[in-house]
Amino acid sequence: MYKNCFKRILDIICSVILMPVVGVAFIIVGPLIYIEDHGTILYRAKRRGQNGKVFEMYKFRTMKMNAPDIRNKDNSTYNSPNDPRVTKIGKILRKSSLDEIPQLINIFKGDMSFIGPRPDTADKNIRDLSAIQKKRLDVRPGLTGYSQAFFRNAIDLQSKLQYDAEYAQKVNFRMDCIIFFKTIDTVIRRKNIYKNQ
Description:
By secondary structure, the chain is mostly helical. It has seven helices and five strands; from the N terminus they run H-E-E-H-H-E-E-H-E-H-H-H.
């Protein structure tokens, strides 16, 4: 009942309550992003959501315009404290996780949930996904999730997929509460921000 009904109701209520935060963030952060390199304020990325549906995920842009997509050997995103692609304001937004605020719009729309596996890129055909990747698609992707809360960027991609697949099979209110509060702790302590030191 929680997974299929109450979780979505909570997402709608909480995203509506927090929508003024999105507005204030745009007013404050938007001009700072634009002033630095006169590019777009939002980064829009194609992501794969629940049941494989592709949607456009929103984030505040933290990289320079048209920055190249650099990947690690396991195909996870390269990120480093000295990444030359990241703007000055982008570094602050990433460390504080404020770049994720526009995803409250995705949550309200139903593309995402507050808690769930972080959304995958949509560059592969769904038929080419592994069994473990498909299991993650049983639930809406989240603003934060088990792997994000407990490990952030400290574990490899395969481990993240495994934890997220297990979460998707065991979703419950208690687990979501634990992930929520652990995420706050991880963000405040700024733990495991960078994979590539």
